[in-house]
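Students often ask why we bother encoding 3D structure as a string. The short answer is that it lets us treat folding as translation between two languages. Here is a chain of 96 residues written in the first language.
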Amino acid sequence: MRCIHDLAARNEHLLGEGENFSASIDNTRLALEVSVIHTYARRIVAMLRQRDPLSERVHLSKTQFALYGLASVLITALRRIGRARPASPDVLKRDA
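And here it is in the second language, the structure alphabet:
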């Protein structure tokens, strides 16, 4: 059991390092997907730190799956609305 909790703690650390990864992705749809997967992973790791996967449930329910996914999409989309976008290559060529 301690081994699983230790692995969960290490994964939690790695997920913390990747917290802002989706913000660095230019493609919005891909960034939203990455953000949702990251949110699911954080929730499951949190469950693994508290529960024994051999004797307790460590899955997201359908409702949790939907709510965490929707919340992640909304938060990531709102963050992306106000960010500055780099000029496209076509605009750079035209201005040169």
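Translate back mentally: The chain has four helices and no strands. Keep this in mind for the problem set.
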